[in-house]
Amino acid sequence: MKVAVFSDTHTNTARMRDAVRREKPDAIIHLGDHDRDTLCLKEEFPEIPLYHVCGNCDFSPTAPTKRVVQLGPVKAFLTHGHLYRVEWSTDSLVYAAMEEGCQIAMYGHTHVPENTEFGGVQILNPGTAGKGIKLTYAMVEIFENGGIACEIRNL
Are 63 and 40 in contact (CB under 8 A)? Predict the structure, then answer.
């Protein structure tokens, strides 16, 4: 299963849509700021499952602040990250993911890509797809045996 992961688009959706066309993922995740940017994805790619959460720059959000989704054999914890103070440490994020029985924790907010592992939890921040000097997103491959491979890619 291939999953495209975006965050912090801040209304700049053209490159995100181009990446989805190019990657042809089985699912799309948007980690907030701006959650309404997902409307263009729902319209253009209605056949691809889309999971999203809101961020600290989402006013009148259309999505929850966190959610747990099943991606094949893997449970994923999705959040923007601001409520877990990820700008200082991902510890509380990892513990929240562990409490939910998740194997991967995905977040945004910092605009800084991260692909690490701690305590058996894969930690993934796709960076920013909308504002910044270097625009990035992540591709995640979920294997039938529960293996996870993540890669940060340039937009």
Answer: no
